[in-house]
Write a structure and sequence with these properties.
The chain is an alpha+beta fold. The chain is about 20% helix and about 25% strand. The N and C termini lie far apart (about 80 Å).
Length: about 160
């Protein structure tokens, strides 16, 4: 005779079988991106200042309101401090009041984005397309025409004065 005890035991056994069956499986590994500019960790440490290394290679964040680029208002291009790839035109820079250089649009093909689940929240991290260096994060509270705010670490950028790209 089938009792409630039998039904619960069978259900528990089924759930246990599902869990055990999935324990040995892992998600397929995503291939690590291959970048046009690559260096060993030792080489990156030689090429970058310790603060730049922390931001670009360790996903660190500089203190707000400390970057000289926050006050950069000349025409020109902001490039990656790790590989010199042009990233942002000065035409897209705006004063966000957040303490980091902010832009409403990167140059075409210059940056990659990925979900960042650090610090107990989900954000969209921005990295350099050519070397994979961490630049900052993008948020959906920027000005028109994109409504985006690319909030970049000044340490991850260099400024090249001249005609804005």
């Amino acid at each position: 005779m089938l009792t409630r005890r039998h039904v619960f035991a069978a259900g528990a056994a089924g759930i246990a079988a599902l869990i055990i069956g999935r324990m040995g499986r892992s998600e397929p590994a995503k291939a690590a991106p291959v970048y046009a500019v690559t260096h060993s960790d030792t080489e990156w440490r030689k090429l970058l200042t310790p603060a730049q290394y922390d931001v670009l290679r360790q996903q660190g964040t500089e203190r707000p309101f400390t970057s000289p680029l926050l006050q950069e208002h000349r025409a020109g291009t902001f490039t990656c401090a790790g590989c010199d790839l042009p990233l942002f035109s000065s035409k897209t820079k705006f004063e966000s009041g957040t303490g980091w250089p902010s832009f409403w649009k990167p140059l075409d093909g210059a940056v990659d984005v990925a979900q960042d689940h650090s610090l107990g929240m989900t954000r969209t991290a921005v990295s350099c397309h050519r070397c994979g260096g961490h630049l900052g994060h993008v948020f959906e509270d920027g000005p028109p025409p994109t409504g985006l705010r690319y909030c970049m670490n000044g340490l991850a950028l260099k400024f090249v004065p001249g005609a804005a790209g």
